[in-house]
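Q: What residues go here?
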């Protein structure tokens, strides 16, 4: 592609690089209008631009093997979204060298990070920006934007980018429809509705139903029995006292019920005191106390992925530490900021 200043008379068929004022003289009345950048110039544009006094223009001229920006963006987007509906994606129309990918439904964004890096490394004029891996999506959430920086790119570069794009972006939908929340109780005071209401909101946006409330004493055996009887396809446990050890009530109740614990603790704050595992095919998530708040915490990252059928290991949890320092909760009993000593 050639780019630069040329005589206005020689600019027919080129692409205007900067928006310019032009003049018309219909019925002997002169008025101006704006020719937008990116316009493929016709003889009429040339005549009107000259009337406005533009003797030279900055333009782009595509080479024989160049692909125009909108066509290039649409082609690359279609390569990412091959079988778009199956991938949970919707592709926008192209404009100004840009095409956006949107989620068709709620779920989490699953990205082949290496493939996306490879696409972006092909040519600086070909760019793909995405949400973070495992970003929670609603229907019509923008997942990615494909932007062609120049007015055209070499067809060979576009072909290389398209080869690397297939199946690199998808939205995994929820795999479960219902859940049970089991809350434990210490003494006679029944838990407030705060934790249940927060979980209800989290599940509702994932299209899931939360069944009737279940409250049990904070002890291994009754909690184990409640886990066994839980009707939901996903089981949540919110204990009255924080789970501070793999041998604590929550994890041990899951094991006693016939399940197994996969992960305990996570380097995400708030959300450290979480455990998860399975009872048969049912995910079981022991929620940290901060899950009583609707604010983002580590439990969101775990429950969203498990609900969408993404398997997790302790290694996956351990890798969440970078970026895992989330917003401070004002009511935390032990603020992260060091206390100032009084003298």
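A:
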């Amino acid at each position: 592609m050639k780019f630069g200043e040329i005589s206005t008379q020689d600019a027919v068929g080129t692409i205007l690089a900067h928006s310019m004022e032009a003049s018309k003289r219909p019925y002997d009345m002169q008025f101006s209008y704006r020719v937008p950048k990116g316009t493929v110039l016709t003889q009429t544009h040339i005549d009107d631009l000259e009337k406005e006094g533009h003797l030279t223009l900055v333009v782009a001229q595509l080479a024989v093997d160049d692909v125009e920006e909108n066509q290039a963006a649409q082609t690359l987007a279609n390569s990412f979204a091959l079988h778009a509906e199956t991938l949970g994606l919707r592709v926008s129309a192209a404009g100004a060298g840009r095409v956006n990918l949107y989620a068709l439904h709620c779920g989490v964004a699953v990205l082949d990070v290496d493939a996306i890096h490879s696409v972006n490394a092909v040519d600086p004029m070909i760019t793909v920006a995405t949400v973070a891996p495992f970003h929670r999506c609603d229907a019509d959430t923008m997942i990615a934007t494909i932007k062609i920086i120049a007015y055209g790119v070499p067809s060979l570069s576009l072909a290389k980018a398209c080869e690397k794009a297939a199946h690199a972006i998808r939205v995994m939908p929820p795999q479960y429809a219902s859940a049970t929340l089991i809350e434990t109780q210490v003494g006679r005071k029944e838990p407030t509705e705060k934790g249940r209401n927060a979980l209800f909101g989290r599940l509702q946006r994932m299209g899931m139903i939360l069944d009737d409330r279940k409250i049990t004493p904070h002890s291994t055996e009754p909690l184990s029995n409640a886990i066994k009887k839980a009707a939901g396809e996903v089981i949540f446990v919110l204990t009255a006292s924080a789970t501070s050890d793999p041998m604590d009530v929550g994890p041990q109740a899951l094991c006693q019920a016939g399940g197994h614990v996969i992960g305990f603790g996570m380097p995400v704050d708030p959300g450290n005191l979480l455990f998860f595992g399975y009872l048969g095919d049912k995910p079981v998530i022991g929620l940290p106390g901060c899950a009583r708040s609707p604010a983002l915490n580590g439990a969101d990252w775990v429950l969203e992925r498990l609900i969408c059928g993404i398997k997790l290991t302790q290694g996956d949890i351990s890798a969440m530490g970078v970026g895992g320092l989330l917003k401070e909760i004002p009511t935390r009993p032990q603020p992260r900021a060091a206390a100032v000593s009084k003298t």
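A: Context that may help when evaluating the design: The chain has a mean pLDDT of 93. Residues 69-80 form the longest helix (12 residues).
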